[in-house]
């Protein structure tokens, strides 16, 4: 093979490499900035036959900035018309100073549905504005349920909604959150991190909704997440549905935002629409 032929092959490989890099950059941008709605169905014996509850879960908003995608997402949430909206932590980033953008989104969510609930994540705890942020949520109609519970009902059913403070930093008090609930009712538990399943009382919840993992952000085919916070390499609980026991289901939402690296691969940003029906 002549030098000219070698140079031609090298040029072709360089062009192919640049094209692949370009496609990768476009894919990462799309996965980070164009969230999808992940639809999930869970069955429970505690839901009356013919009844159902639709829950919209938002998790790990982090550093997502207001833009046209925001408005598209809000339009989609309005069309979904959920019975409840739950925010499972890290709604702000540890470095978030200006809360106006977050408050603007919160006000629109509460307009869509006043039954909006929130639990803290590790980034709320790391942010110097945590106290004023939580007050701001409450003042705008969001129910903050860190280590406590509430009761929600409509004309079909009544459920318990329990929430715990951030499990990843040891601030969750599950016993306090579920103390006094009517155990005959369906119990929804909100927690930021899936570490909550290590608590013995976890089986008193019928459905546990978490975030925190970001789904690993970067995933590999047939492998899943490479790494997740608190679990290390190739985590067991990264995203999706897990059966903790016969009556307790864990669902981990991979979230909207990103961590230190603003990258997602094979792991598109998302919100979750969870429908709970009777068995």
TrEMBL record:
Pfam families noted in UniProt: Metallophos (PF00149)
Name this protein carries in UniProt: Putative phosphohydrolase
Gene Ontology CC: one annotated term: membrane
GO biological process: lipid A biosynthetic process
InterPro entries per UniProt: Calcineurin-like_PHP (IPR004843), Metallo-depent_PP-like (IPR029052), Metallophosphoesterase_sf (IPR051158)
A GO MF label: metal ion binding
Chain ranges passing through the membrane: 6-30
Keywords, sorted A to Z: Hydrolase, Membrane, Metal-binding, Transmembrane, Transmembrane helix
Start and end residues of each Calcineurin-like phosphoesterase domain: 54-215
Highest rank taxon of the organism: Bacteria
